[in-house]
Design goal:
Elements (H helix, E strand, L loop, with lengths): L1 H18 L4 E7 L4 E6 L15 E6 L5 E4 L1 E8 L5 E9 L10 E6 L7 E5 L8 E3 L8 E8 L7 E11 L12 E11 L8 E13 L9 E16 L2 E16 L2 E6 L2 E18 L8 E16 L8 E13 L3 E9 L4 E9 L3 E11 L4 E10 L8 E15 L9
Antiparallel strand pairs: 1-2, 2-6, 3-4, 3-7, 5-6, 7-8, 9-24, 10-11, 10-24, 11-12, 12-13, 13-14, 14-15, 15-17, 16-17, 17-18, 18-19, 19-22, 20-21, 22-23, 23-24
Length: 411
């Protein structure tokens, strides 16, 4: 009888052991040692150790928000002082890029069978939840008050705000499913020949269909934006009101890491998309022009030097281009300075001509969050598309990003 009970107990233990599926429970980056610690669901996990890094893929989102794929050079299983293997797998990485200030790590294990294991790890609660952003392009919270010197009109002041926030991913095991968030942007300038009051508020869904690097391309980001574009501005004798609704509009971003080393980062982010929706009102038609559709192309380029010294935390030179190619006619606003009245004469038309906008910024960060920004822009932005003829401004800036969940705002 005792032998029978012992046999049954051994069978039950074996069934429990075989029922424990291999999975990842936690992933954490150690920047100083260039290692990733992965906690598995079972001790002494059945993995190959040594130079079997090709079975593992590690992608780290570093301090500036760029996802970087890092080569795994060695795989080991941690042991107790008595030499017993634990459930911790240590991946030793190549040291070609700094991992300090990392915000997430995606670990993928492909043992060669039908199952692929994947986990998205984030820093512990002891890490800062908000970090400084080097420029507007990589900021989740951006506030800027600028001064525009006298150029064919009195000197004036303006503001520029941008806020974005992403909720947690739907699944840590499947971060490619993405997450939802919101985005708010706004600009206002007292000078009528510059960009009129322009606001956007909406929701977004952001996913990562490709998280594996292909050369310098660090993956593919997919995003759907849905929201409203609004403008209300007095231009000459007209008080314009323009409002658009954007249906779920898709675009793809391709983050590229051109160079990284010695505190210098060079990045590019080409994008392609399509915007469509409804115009409810504009200066030419108070009842709106109806359906709108635009092809969207663009790119962001940034050169950043980050010594993190006193009064020189970072300095960044960035440039952003957006080209909108209209499939339906939309409001088109132009202005000509009238020396006789010392004011601008405005003309409103409805056209399909392409609308381009280029903005370049030099950001000098004294501290992690505050700095001075010099900006130059020209072109037209929705919804009123008032052409900006080479505007120059300088002002104080606050910029920050959510360290654990940085999100790409609509731009």
């Amino acid at each position: 009888m005792r032998i029978c009970l012992t046999f049954i107990a051994l069978m039950l233990l074996g069934a429990l052991a075989s029922g424990t599926e291999l999975s990842m429970l936690k992933a954490h980056v150690s920047p100083n040692s260039h290692q990733v610690s992965v906690l598995m669901s079972v001790p002494a996990p059945p993995i190959q150790t040594g130079a079997f890094g090709d079975q593992w893929e590690v992608q780290v989102q570093i301090a500036d928000g760029t996802p970087v794929t890092v080569t795994v050079e060695n795989v080991t299983i941690a042991t107790t002082p008595a030499g017993v293997q634990t459930n911790e797998v240590i991946l030793t990485l190549s040291d070609g890029v700094s991992l300090a200030g990392w915000t997430s790590v995606l670990v993928t294990y492909k043992p060669g069978g039908p199952t692929t294991y994947r986990f998205l790890g984030t820093p512990s609660d002891k890490q800062k939840t908000i970090v400084g952003a080097d420029s507007k392009d990589d900021a989740d919270v951006y506030l800027s008050g600028t001064y525009s010197p006298r150029i064919h009109s009195p000197a004036q002041y303006s503001y520029d705000i941008a806020v974005g926030y992403g909720l947690p991913y739907f699944s840590q095991a499947h971060p490619d499913w993405g997450r939802v968030g919101f985005s708010i942007t706004g600009t206002a300038d007292q000078r009528p020949n510059l960009d009129p009051d322009s606001y956007y508020a909406g929701a977004l869904w952001q996913a990562y269909p490709v998280r594996k690097a292909f050369g310098v391309i660090q993956g593919v980001v997919f995003q759907l934006d849905i929201g409203g574009e609004f403008a209300r501005k007095k231009l000459g004798d007209s008080k314009t009101k323009t409002s658009n609704f954007l249906a779920p509009s898709p675009h793809f971003d391709f983050p590229i890491r051109v160079y990284s080393g010695s505190g210098v980062f060079v990045t590019m982010r080409p994008m392609v998309g399509f915007e469509y929706g409804e115009n409810f009102q504009n200066e030419q038609d108070p009842h709106g022009s109806g359906f709108l559709a635009r092809w969207l192309l663009g790119t962001d380029i940034a050169l950043t030097y980050k010594p993190k010294k006193r009064f020189l935390y970072s300095i960044s030179l960035s440039s952003s281009w957006r080209g909108r190619y209209l499939q339906q006619k939309e409001i088109d606003t132009t202005s000509v300075f009238n020396p006789a009245t010392q004011d601008f004469d405005f003309t409103f038309n409805v056209t399909k001509k392409p609308r381009n906008h280029v903005q370049s910024k030099l950001d000098w960060k004294w501290t992690e969050f505050f700095g001075l920004t010099a900006s130059h822009e020209f072109g037209a932005v929705p919804p009123i598309f008032n052409y900006v003829d080479h505007s120059v401004s300088i002002g104080f800036t606050f910029s920050a990003a959510f360290a654990k969940d940085a999100v790409q705002r609509r731009k």
